[in-house]
Amino acid sequence: MESTEVESDILRRVRTLLRELDGHHPTCQCDRGMLRWTLHKKIDQNPSNSSILVRILVKELERAERGDFRHYIIPLLHTLMYTLIKAPCISDELCGRVYDFCKKLLTLPKPFCTIGLDYAIRLKMERTAPGTLYQRMVISEQSLKSDPYPYQEKIFIFADPELLSEAICNALVTDTEAARVSQSPRACMCYVILHTMQAALGEGCDISSLKATLQVMPTSDVEHWFRQVVVAVECAGNQASADRSQHAARLEEISHAILSSCQAGDAPLGGLQDTPLPNPNISFHLWTEDDQLWKELVLFIRPLSQSCEPDCLSQDLDNFEIQDIISDCECCEQTRFSVLSTDSGIERDLLVAVEEPFAPCGAETEQSRLHRKGGIKKKPSPLESMAFLQAGCNGAGMKSPVKLQRRPGITPEPAAPLQRLHTARIVLLGDDRVLGRLAQAYHSLRKRETRRVFLTPRLNLQFYYIPVVTGQPNTLAMTDHAATGDEELCEVAGYLGRADPWYESNINTLCHVIPKLAAMPSSPSKHLVTDLFITDVIAYYVRMGTQPVCFQVYTVKIFFNDPAQEPAEDVFLTELRTQVQESISYRGSLLAELSMTKKKTTLDGPGIDLTVTYRKVVLSDRPKELVVSLRSTGLVMKAIPADGADDLVCLNVNITEIIRINNLSGRSFSAVANRLKTCNIKIRSTEQRPFTVCLDKDSRRVYRNVISVEVSPCLEPSYCLQKTRTMKFNLHETEDVGLVKYMPKSLLLPINTFAGIIQ
């Protein structure tokens, strides 16, 4: 009877979760976004109920497929997989049902087939070697040393201190530090051993005795048995002909060996026990420097503790040139010599005539050959750098950019390909303004990688976004829009929520939850809630959010009223807003200018005369350029569509046009909204009156005394470089040829969600 009540309670919670996806929010608004969290926490309290939850979720998935409730499938599947990873033991029969359902998803369109294929591959490995998914997640997130699985991950939380309150920043710092300190490498290795044993052996595993034995065991012995377990699981998971029973037998041998190594008291079998999934490695950063993102990524790839000279590396980071870092590290290995070379570079010119035809290749033979002194390392050519960038776009492996120098008669060994062993998960907290800074930083990073490839072949970069609004009024320079609402500041979050209901349910609800938790008075109960909720939700998001939504980054070229001032170039992600500049900030007859402006305003109405040249978006995708002259008080370019069905690679331009009306009572003016869609647009003030430009709703990114702007989709820097080099040899070629045809042309900013865009 008790089992029936537990099953009914779990089913009720799952059905409530599905009703929230349909828009039926819970009566208590404080429960919004916490239904998934409370469900998993209830299972953590009693791990033996994991199989019940998995069975219920499988039934609901099958029901959703039969009833064509596709918007249920991805949330249910993510909930199921997260439960399966954390569960102490799931039967092969139940895993098989989930595996068969994932294979059915391959017949559906994206993103269902993509997620189904990913989970089917994972489940096939989990069925052969139970505990593989948990083990790999802990090893990578905690950066545990493991030769069979050498991958490392780290979560970087970036928050703009000018957009978030001090209380929110302090609360997040406290939570992330507490999560990082509470997990030691020894404890994580013990968790891997215990979970793997229990997943493979089930209730036959003496988990209590194993736990007691590992607690009194020296750290060196724990590391030894950890390596044994990892090797056993990885070998079984990577072998196509591996058998589950053979894997269980191998782990049982390791379990007996662990128990026999230390004399721990005999303890009765206590059934399945929960093995906690440690919080991932999270670091919190206040975003105060423009190049801070790049610096943190470089230090993640090459930590100070592993570099040759920490002080030297820190100085090189300040110089912003990665080649200096590589060169300085090479200085520690060998001394450089400047030697005048008389070598022609032709192999037949080498002095090898004294060698006998059949002489063995011994030490004397090597001495007779010409040896070059240790010289300065040759820089890779631009084309070799392009190979790196192209491989970075298409896959993890790539060939080395430095060619091997051959010796006569010796076959060079192939260089080991570089692998992306590091994954950096960048989590942005804030509103659209912090995403505008991210677009700037990402564009700068891509330009730096084009000049000198370093991060691309070594790092897998993932972006995540959690909207947080403090409720403080926004003080933009634009007077007409000074009181921008929360929805206006969170357009990206709104779009992602419309595209992915599970993102709306789990992430968008944090917009006001995080400020409320940060404002709670300091107490033990507060730390309990924040540690268990905010950190857990962030961890769930980065673990299960694998489907990117790609946003087009736009570049803007700004021309100023002063001819001596160089044009400025910048990028934006969400919005560009212009407004007539009331005061003129250059010297001269200011009173005369103001008088003329006032007289013209009286005759022609408010605003300034503009010439708008744009490329109209048509269904045939053929370029159609139009020129429009009008009088306007300002315009807004929106890159994020208000409707989820609109295209993400199109600008929605709203121009406030001033229309002059002549009637019997005199002259009057009316404002008319002029709307157009385009990807490329040029705006010029015909009367040389300046206007202001604000990017991404950020008052720190306002340009004044502007007379002209040109907006177009931002191109991928590597594409631009390769296109330039191709044009040198094909001056009359206008279309992309060669390698350029297969390179990404536009710079897209990918932000991960749970489902991507559901059509």
Automatic annotation (TrEMBL):
GO terms for biological process: G protein-coupled receptor signaling pathway. It holds the Pfam family PI3K_1B_p101. InterPro entries: PIK3R5/6. It comes from the Eukaryota. One of its GO terms (cellular component) is phosphatidylinositol 3-kinase complex, class IB. GO terms for molecular function: 1-phosphatidylinositol-3-kinase regulator activity. This is Phosphoinositide-3-kinase regulatory subunit 6.
